[in-house]
Design brief:
Immunoglobulin-like, disordered N terminus, mainly beta
Length: 777
């Protein structure tokens, strides 16, 4: 009866005799679910959570993610005493650089798997439908072949899980019926999540999910291709590969001696367990609702093989008992697996998870996983430095691992006392750099901006500058791009920025009384910060200050220049700068307001002009703070309206005489110049008289007059009314009435009177206004 049911099932897959449609579809049962090893069959058949089990790659390709050796497995299965299954699995791990996190390359172990599965049913009768009956004509063979190529890898410490195994595979499926065959392809994918608990007897739990036959195309048969029938020629059939999703849960208990499983199997929910009875004997069992699976595994830890190497070998057997009506034909599975070298499995460095690290810390934490019940040796530049213990979850750590200056090539190996060292782990490179970068700066100023170029003896992460209250960021220039993940920090680097000059330092501004500092800071790729470089620019004038009032003909300039200044000039005259960048120079002032120009010549041959304002007031030796109307005397003397005597005194109490007022009249007319006198002018004005030239000019231009007796009377004092008359006649002031018109006037009183006449008042206001009046015209 069981054989009849089995043959009928195959016939449903291979015979298509439909009368009412041109195209029919065959719903394929999931042959792939049986392409697994004996251990997998004992634990639910389609259990997707068997991490590290090479014979489970057809169920979930993510099971390959934890494989770190080169396992090989062969399985032979007899299903219901009728179907023959053969499965071959091989996995090879290798390391690859992947940009998994933060766009930085990390070295990950990737396992590639190659699997082959074959299911075959022999002696299937070929039939002929004739005269209302089915006739057997001959027998043929039918079945499926699967070829799978898979890739898988582990990610660590993500989303709260210690490990996340990811896998995907590409399959080619061939169905053969007799001498004919058809093929198609599809994809599988899956993942396994692992979390270590360590709570009482619960060690860890694992979740697995897999999806089969993604993007699968059906296998299309036409009746002319189908050797199982000769009826209904021209019709087509499709064998559809069903989309299957499997999920499972695994709990590890009692130091992983016992594992409990729960998953959805082909015939229902499967509950499974696996118990390590001894180190080399494993007992397994599961119940799927309609089927009971019992199995065992025997480990052979030291079997000599190729090149006199020791290998680990495992033999697994499974017995499956079905319920009625299939109870008379149990299924058997036998798997032989070479699990890889008997050496400890190579460990893995999980943290740091980057291929190359630059740091200025002399110690670094290392974390990883390894085979349980082993220890770890940590190597730096091929020299063993430290050891670490592996905990019951297969984790190890080394806090504060010492680094040496420069490159540190770090890898680890597992070892047991009774076994050789494992192959090395993935390798990481940590470059220790504790030396601050050396920084050089060149400044190329312009009239309103600064071009700054910073260079260093190593690669830098950033260069910043502060000018006044402005923060400036540099950009790297002449950067050599490289695809290599390894950065050599001891290569020169160059950075550049263009910054605006502060408004008070631009061309045409006032001379700064204090130099502005450019403060440059740099940080290398390891986090070392350079010493701050403060470069002052361009010039600092300590004396005099802007808007300075000075009484002497010459003034001495004192100040400092910047190291980036090549030379200074004051009003076109070069200034000597001593080795300490100090300078001092004397320059001449004109009476009145002076705009003194200080030119800065920079190292890049740029010229920046600054200036400062000085009011030179003309004063006299006999003027003191107690002199009445002193300020008016100085203002008018500076304007050239009044003057003192040749001995340098003003004699403020001296009466205003005719010759004194004559000089004032001539000086007040911009179109008149004192005439050269060679002969005596009057009886009392010889040619060498101090005011002879002024008297001659005034008389000749009608500003003054001589007396009928042929004298000029230069020393004769004048009254206020006479002074007003002369000044108004010359157009200097308006005619006005004065008090005490017969009063003789002192020189200081004349100064006070003139200072408040509209004409001279405007001149004085212009003189003391710092913002105007520097145009000599």
């Amino acid at each position: 009866m069981n054989k009849v049911c089995s043959i009928f099932l195959i016939l449903l897959l291979s015979i298509s005799t439909y009368i009412f449609a041109d195209t029919t579809t065959r719903a394929s049962f999931n042959t792939q679910a049986e392409f697994n090893g004996a251990r997998v069959s004992s634990l639910g058949g389609t259990n997707p959570v068997l991490s590290g089990e090479v014979s489970s790659s057809f169920i979930n390709p993510a099971t390959l993610a934890s494989i770190d050796s080169v396992p090989f497995s062969y399985t032979n299965k007899r299903l219901l005493g009728t179907f023959d299954y053969s499965v071959i699995n091989l996995a090879v791990p290798f390391y690859i650089n992947l940009p998994i996190k933060r766009d930085r390359l990390s070295e990950y172990r990737v396992t590639t798997g190659l699997s082959y599965g074959n299911s075959i049913l022999k002696d299937i009768p070929k039939t002929l439908y004739s005269v209302g009956e089915i006739w057997e004509t001959e027998t043929y063979v039918s079945g499926f072949e699967y070829i799978q190529s898979a890739l898988a890898t582990n990610l660590y410490d993500l989303f709260g899980f210690n490990e996340i195994g990811l896998g995907t595979s590409f399959k080619y499926i061939r169905q053969y019926v007799g001498t004919e065959n058809k093929g198609t392809f599809s994809f599988d994918t899956g993942l396994i999540l692992s979390k270590y608990i360590g709570f009482y007897f619960l060690d860890s739990f694992h979740l697995g999910v897999s999806a089969q036959n993604l993007l699968a195309r059906p296998i299309v048969w036409s009746h002319s291709d189908d050797p199982t029938t000769t009826a209904n020629e021209g019709r087509t059939n499709e064998v559809v590969l069903p989309l299957k999703v499997y999920s499972g849960l695994k709990l590890d208990l009692f130091n992983e001696k016992l594992s409990l499983y729960l998953n959805n199997a082909s015939s229902g929910i499967a509950i499974s367990s696996e118990y390590y009875f001894r180190n080399n004997i494993i007992l397994r069992g599961s119940y799927e609702g309609t089927k009971l699976n019992l199995g065992t595994g025997i480990m052979f830890p030291n079997i000599y093989g190729f090149n006199q190497q020791e290998y680990r070998f495992r033999m697994d057997y499974n017995y499956s008992q079905n319920q009625y009506p299939l109870d008379a034909d149990p299924s058997h599975s036998l798997s032989l697996s070479i699990l890889g070298s008997a050496k400890p499995k190579p460990p893995f460095i999980i943290f740091p998870d980057e291929l190359f690290i630059l740091t200025n810390s002399q110690y670094y934490d290392l974390l990883g996983n390894a085979e349980k019940k082993t220890d770890i040796q940590i190597f730096r530049n091929n020299i063993m430095i430290k050891t670490a213990q592996v905990n019951r979850f297969g984790e190890w750590q080394s806090r504060d691992f010492p680094l040496k200056e420069g490159m540190n090539d770090i890898f680890v190996k597992s070892y047991e006392i009774s076994k050789d060292l494992s192959r090395r782990s993935n390798k990481i490179k940590i470059y220790l750099d504790t030396t601050p970068p050396e920084l050089n700066l060149s400044i190329a100023p312009g009239k309103d901006r600064l071009e700054l170029v910073a260079s260093s003896n190593e690669q830098l992460a950033e260069v910043t500058a502060v000018i006044g209250t402005s923060n400036i960021t540099f950009q790297e220039i002449n950067k050599v791009e490289s695809d290599s993940p390894y950065i050599m920090p001891n290569q020169d680097s160059f950075w550049k920025t263009v910054a605006k000059l502060p408004d008070d330092l631009k061309d045409g501004s006032r001379v700064p009384t204090k130099m502005t500092n450019i403060i440059i800071n740099a940080m290398d790729l390891s986090g070392n910060e350079s010493q701050s470089i403060a470069i002052p620019f361009f010039v600092e004038l300590k004396f005099p200050k802007d808007k300075f009032v000075h009484y002497k003909e010459n003034i001495r300039l004192i100040g400092y220049s910047s190291p980036i200044v090549e030379g200074l000039e004051v009003d076109g005259n070069p200034i000597y700068i001593d080795p300490s960048n100090r300078f001092a120079i004397t320059t001449k002032l004109e009476p009145g307001k002076n705009l003194v120009n200080l030119t800065v010549k920079t190292l890049n041959n740029k010229r920046i002009n600054y200036n400062f304002r000085v009011l030179r007031l003309v004063s006299f030796d006999d003027l003191t703070d107690k002199t009445k109307f002193r300020r008016e005397i100085e203002f008018l003397s500076t304007l050239g309206v009044i003057s003192g005597d040749d001995d340098g005194n003003f004699y403020p109490e001296k009466k205003v005489s005719r010759d004194y007022i004559t000089k004032l009249l001539v000086d007040s007319d911009d179109e008149l110049e004192p005439e050269l006198v060679r002969d005596d002018l009057f009886e009392d004005v010889p040619a060498d008289h101090p005011y002879a030239s002024y008297i001659s000019t005034a008389v000749n231009n009608g500003l003054m007059f001589a007396f009928p007796d042929g004298t000029f009377k230069p020393e004769q004092p004048l009254t206020m009314s006479e002074i007003v008359f002369l000044l108004s006649s010359a157009g200097i002031i308006d005619a006005q009435e004065v008090d005490d018109e017969n009063k003789l006037i002192n020189r200081n009183e004349l100064a006070q009177f003139l200072a408040y006449t509209p004409f001279y008042e405007r001149k004085i206001e212009r003189l003391i206004n710092w913002e105007i009046g520097y145009d000599k015209k």
